[in-house]
Design goal:
By secondary structure, the chain is an all-alpha fold. It has three helices and no strands.
Length: 49
């Protein structure tokens, strides 16, 4: 499956990944979020409020 790994995330995607880790108290962003990041606008829409 294609995804944007955390180490390669930049800009808004990196910010959303940080927010997901903090809000959900996760040590890493899981696969579903990394796959959604392929379409930044989708990741932003379904991201943590």
């Amino acid at each position: 499956m294609i995804e944007i790994p955390e180490i390669e995330a930049t800009g808004k995607v990196a910010e959303i990944y940080d927010d997901i880790r903090q809000t959900l108290d996760m040590s890493m962003v899981n696969t579903i979020w990394r796959n959604l990041a392929l379409q930044e606008e989708v990741l932003e829409r379904v991201g943590i409020p």
